[in-house]
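Fold this sequence, please.
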Amino acid sequence: MQPPSSTLEHLLEGRDLTEAQAGDLLGQLTAPDLAPAMAGALLAALRGKGVTAAEVRGFAGAMRGLARKPELRTHRMPSTSSVPAATRPVV
């Protein structure tokens, strides 16, 4: 992973990022220690250069890697046999 200043220089030269570099960039952008001014400069440089398909794939892959997987609980539906016939829903 290259430092943000190197990535910024790369983008300001109008050069595209590889998929892996874009994924690394997203990781850097989500790091709490990245200065807001550097984050803004990186995003502005990327916007000015234009985004490629490989960069979008890299960002998407990195987002999937950062995503939290919620713990889902399963609930059992009550049996309709315990509901009186007059109140059972008609399906």
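Residues 28 and 34 are 7 Å apart (CA to CA). The chain has a mean pLDDT of 88.
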